[in-house]
Design goal:
- By secondary structure, this protein is an all-alpha fold.
- The protein has a domain at 113-194.
- It contains 3 helices and no strands.
- The N and C termini lie far apart (155 Å).
Length: 194
């Protein structure tokens, strides 16, 4: 037992310096932690600000890249839309022409003249009107020539017997009737041509 007591006494003596060394170590650890916390706090704000700056630059890069991609996609979509609308308008034009052809065929079967037929008739009528005006102008010139001799004829008829004025009047009347007869003949030939 004596040995035990000696060892306990020795351990007590040794425990006091051990206790002091543990206490000193704990205090040093505590102080190192406080120093690390202070340093982390001081450098942490700097690190935080650096991270914020880096985040802002990354955000700007990301936004510019996204805007580029959006503009590329927009241009591609507009080109595709233009191509599709062009194709659709081409198809619509084809459909419209097919519809017009079928309607024209149906109207032709019913005997309704087409717009081309009507235009051709209008041109022919205009040509006939021009030729009628030319003929009437030519017919008016002979009328004037026949009127002057008719006026001269009554003066001669005054010297001649009474039967002579009737003959000169008969000559003047057919000249008037011939001009309308010519116009009627031209109009009849124009109607036959149409």
């Amino acid at each position: 037992m004596v040995k035990k007591l000696k060892t306990t006494a020795a351990s007590k003596k040794a425990g006091a310096p051990l206790k002091g060394s543990v206490k000193d170590s704990a205090q040093q650890i505590w102080q190192a932690g406080l120093g690390a916390f202070n340093k982390a706090q001081a450098e942490g704000s700097k690190a935080f600000e650096a991270l914020v700056k880096e985040g802002v630059s990354l955000q700007r890069k990301t936004q510019s890249a996204a805007e580029e991609k959006i503009s590329e996609a927009t241009s591609k979509m507009s080109t595709m839309a233009n191509g599709i609308s062009h194709k659709a308008s081409g198809q619509w034009d084809k459909l419209e022409s097919i519809f017009e052809e079928r309607v024209a065929k149906a109207l032709n079967k019913l005997g309704v003249p087409s717009a081309k037929d009507v235009a051709a008739l209008i041109e022919r009528i205009e040509e006939l009107n021009k030729s009628v005006q030319k003929l009437s102008a030519k017919g008016a010139a002979p009328k004037a020539a026949t009127k002057t001799p008719a006026k001269a004829a009554p003066k001669r008829a005054a010297k001649a017997p009474a039967a002579a004025p009737e003959a000169s009047a008969a000559v003047a009347k057919p000249a008037r009737k011939r001009a309308p007869a010519r116009k009627a003949a031209v109009v009849e030939t124009a109607a036959e041509a149409v």
